[in-house]
Amino acid sequence: MTRAPGAFLLAALLACGPVLAAECDPTKAGAKISYDEKIQPIFGGICAQCHNTMETPEGLVLEAGLALDLLLNVRSVQSALKRVEPGNPEKSYLVHKLRGTQDSVGGSGQQMPAGLAPLRDEEIDLVVQWICSPAN
Asked: Considering the entire predicted model, what is its pTM?
């Protein structure tokens, strides 16, 4: 049995769905993801090791009480994208940095968190769903 030229690539992309997709899941539309309860613990426990008030790579502090104002609708220092564009994870540079796809959107640097293991797919998916959720 022969496959169409793009069939293998399509199968590979489908198999990697959660890793590559940065779209809002329509089955979770309208689901409110609490930043304070679900997202800040990820940032505070991992990302704020470097992104804190003492050391602020790219001017981004991810400590509780400071992160939201520096994330939502703020242009990234490394890319023309916003750090987080509410409702649009594909146009949110944060998602690309977490996935390691920052080069594909004109960004730079390395995948975050730097020097540590990447976030688990479930954690990245939670960030994506938070970006998709209403009034994040």
From this structure: 0.79
